[in-house]
Please model this.
Amino acid sequence: MASDPTRNSPLSPATLHILLALARGNLHGYGIIQEVARNTDGRYRLGPGTLYDNLKKLMDTGLVADAPKSSSSKRKSAAAKEDDRRFYTLTKEGRAALTVEVDRLQSVVTQARLRLQEARSGRA
Amino acid sequence: MNNVVSRFAYRLLLRLHPAPFQHEFGAEMLWIFDEEHQRGASSYLLFDGMLSLLRQRCRMPRTSGLLSIRSGEIISTPGVGPLRLLQAGVTSFAILFSIMLLSSRSSPLMVSIRWSEQTPCYTITLQSSTHMAEIRKTMP
Model:
């Protein structure tokens, strides 16, 4: 599914946060929720409905995929149950879309800073 | 007792989701509900589940001329179109929202609607002090 990475831009906040969470590594659904909450100091917390709705769309567009099961999942430990969960991974296209979005946001921030600076110097 | 009721309500909401979505994500959503419920966020989770139900039902393709009465499926005939589903959704949404407002002792929920002309799309965001849910709809 090779496509133009700008096709999905601009991303919704939920999509952006999910992709950002997965950029650090493969996670299961609850892991994504926790990672998003950690990344935003608890200010943005996804509900499971919002999460899976967005995950489904991201999987349909090929930005996120099921992560292959690790060989360590056979071990009998307290984490064994967690390993049975479905893990999600960021695809190459997903990483490209995230990069495009971050660049877009970067340019928005640069523009905004410039405008605010101009406004401030105009007032002085 | 309250735990049992909210878990039952959430399971019911999951059962009302379209079957493919329910089979793919239902178990995981219930697992997250159980985990998050311990943190005392059940009213928000129910609301999020309701929004999810609306999103999935509104997005569901029409199956013309086919009477589908499967587990968790809404009857789809030519007479039951997206408008009817939306109407039903908004009504149940309003009822659930009223119940939540009446029963909630925590901070109120904030609803905001944003319109982006660039895409064009609109985003409806629902935010409490600890949680956030959103619906984003791109116009054709």
Observations:
- The longest helix of chain B spans residues 82-103.
- Residues 43 and 99 of chain B are 10 Å apart (CA to CA).
- Chain B touches chain A through 31 residues (CB under 8 Å).
